[in-house]
Amino acid sequence: MTLHLRLKAAVLSALLLAVLLLVWQASTGGPTAGPAMNEVDAEYAALMGHTVESSPSGGFPTPAEFFRLAGQQLSEPFYDRGPNDKGIGIQLAHSLGRVAMGYLIAMAVAIPLGFVIGMSPLLYQALNPFIQVLKPISPLAWMPIALYTIRDSSISAVFVIFICSIWPMLINTAFGVAAVRKDWLNVARTLEVSPLRKAFRVILPAAAPTIITGMRISMGIAWLVIVAAEMLIGGTGIGYFVWNEWNNLSLANVIFAVLMIGLIGMLLDLMFAQLQKRVTYVE
After folding, report:
1. What is the mean pLDDT of residues 175-179?
2. Domain of 224?
């Protein structure tokens, strides 16, 4: 991509952002943009101990209100004032910790098992029906089973991340290993290369791009699932933060948390994209 094209893309992105902000301001800043907060919402906010400022948009924040509350969140992201009042930095740390734990466990299981399946046509055919049945199941459908058997909400969330992360890595690893060129394997066999050396020096470099692709897909799914899982289990996490702020009628904080979820997801995807660029092999 040339520098000129990058500059044009940056200018176009800035213009689109400006248009979105103008539409947002026009939709929420006018005196007739929406109804005022009803008495039920006002009474609920008072019972929860929150003061909700009146807004001409009927509760939906204007860009100025959003940026003001976002600045407050970013100025003190790691505050801790009790079980239901923690900064967004703490909530993101809990979510990332659960994702990392479940993802690493899935990686430790999926990649070695994918190697074995990819190198054995018999195992590939025997296990494929089970994989195809279990793969489409929604990760959140496992949550009631995990809560009933594990009886710990945080570990149950880690299990859900594990179960949703394992399938893309397992399938891509098995496919990448099975697709290694037979000529390379024949050369390794002719040179009497040991199985372990062949796995690390021949098969792994050849299958690495496909394996990284599966890891990238799994990370994207894991980050999506943890938000919904934390809405169910409560306690801590960015998903719980979104649910709690919605219950507190703080829509600006909900929008801010959603944008943070998107930003973290983008950074995780960029990390794996850079890893994909580095993983190359010579045919």
Report:
1. 88
2. 92-238
Mean pLDDT across the chain: 83
Q: Give the CATH number, domain containing residue 112.
A: 1.10.3720.10
Kindly state whether residue 201 falls inside one of the protein's structural domains. yes
> How far is residue 160's CA from residue 145's CA, in Å, rounded to a whole number?
10
Instruction: Please report, in angstroms and rounded to a whole number, the separation of the first and last CA atoms in the chain.
Output: 26
Alpha-carbon separation of residue 109 from 66, 95, 116 (angstroms): 43, 21, 11
Q: Can you tell me the mean pLDDT for 14-29?
A: 88
Q: What is the per-residue pLDDT across 242-277, written as a single tens digit (0 to 9) for each?
A: 888 887 777 888 888 899 999 999 999 999 888 888
Residue showing tokens 């990238």: 216
**Does residue 202 lie in a domain region?**
yes
Closest CA to 150 of 137, 135, 131, 163: 163
Average pLDDT over residues 101-126: 92
- Global pTM reads 0.82
- 46 in any annotated domain: no
Structure tokens at 152: 């710990």
Q: Which of 123, 226, 244, 113 is nearest to 167 (CA)?
A: 113
User: How many domains does the structure of the chain reveal?
Assistant: 1
Burial of 41 (0-12, 13-18, 19+ CB in 10 A): middle
Q: What tokens appear for 72 in the block?
A: 């407050």
Is 268 a domain residue? no
Helix locations, 88-194, DSSP H: 88-119, 121-134, 143-150, 153-178, 182-190
**Residues 165, 206: contact at Cβ < 8 Å?**
no
